[in-house]
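Please fill in the sequence for the structure shown.

STRUCTURE ENCODING:
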C-alpha cells in the first residue's frame, strides 16, 4: 500500500512539473501573439489557470514524501530526537486531518458544481468542477501520504540528515 501511494505521489508530482511547463508554453505563446498585435486567444489564460490549480495541489503529496515543503526549524532543531519525532508525527497527523477536511468540503463544492452544471462564465465556459475537483482528489492523496509518513516516522524515527539549505 505504501509503495502504491508513493508511486501515485510521484506520478502526481511528474504531472505537476509537466503542467507548469505547458502553462509556461501557453502563456509564452499568448504574450508572443499579443506582441505581434494579434488578438488574444480565448483558451490560453483559462487553460493555464486550470493547469496551475491542478499542478499546485498535485505536487503537494510528493513534496511531503520528499520533505521538500518550506519549513521553519528554529525551534524544532533544538528538540531532543524523541521530541522531534513526536513533533513530526503531530505535524503529519495535522496535515492528514486538514486534508480530510478539504476533501470533505472541497468535494461537496465540486459535486455541487457538477450537479448544477456550473461553468466558469468565461469565453471557453469550462465546467467549474474541472478546477474544483483538484482539491478533493489531490488532498486525498496528500492526506494518505501524510498518514504513511507519520507511520514511517513513528517506526523509523526522524531522519537526522540536515535539510538542504538554499543560499541567497
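FILLED IN BY: designer on duty
SEQUENCE:
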Amino acid at each position: 500500500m505504501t509503495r502504491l501511494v508513493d508511486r501515485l505521489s510521484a506520478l502526481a508530482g511528474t504531472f505537476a512539473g509537466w503542467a507548469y511547463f505547458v502553462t509556461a508554453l501557453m502563456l509564452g505563446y499568448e504574450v508572443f501573439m499579443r506582441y505581434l498585435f494579434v488578438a488574444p486567444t480565448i483558451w490560453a489564460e483559462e487553460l493555464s489557470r486550470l493547469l496551475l490549480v491542478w499542478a499546485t495541489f498535485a505536487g503537494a503529496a510528493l513534496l511531503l514524501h520528499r520533505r521538500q515543503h518550506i519549513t521553519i526549524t528554529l525551534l524544532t532543531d533544538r528538540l531532543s530526537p524523541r521530541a522531534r519525532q513526536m513533533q513530526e508525527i503531530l505535524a503529519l497527523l495535522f496535515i492528514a486531518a486538514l486534508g480530510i477536511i478539504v476533501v470533505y468540503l472541497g468535494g461537496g463544492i465540486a459535486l455541487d458544481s457538477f450537479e448544477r452544471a456550473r461553468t466558469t462564465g468565461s469565453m471557453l465556459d469550462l465546467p467549474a468542477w474541472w478546477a474544483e475537483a483538484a482539491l478533493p482528489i489531490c488532498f486525498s492523496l496528500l492526506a494518505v501520504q501524510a498518514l504513511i509518513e507519520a507511520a514511517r516516522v513513528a517506526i523509523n524515527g526522524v531522519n537526522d540528515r540536515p535539510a538542504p539549505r538554499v543560499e541567497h
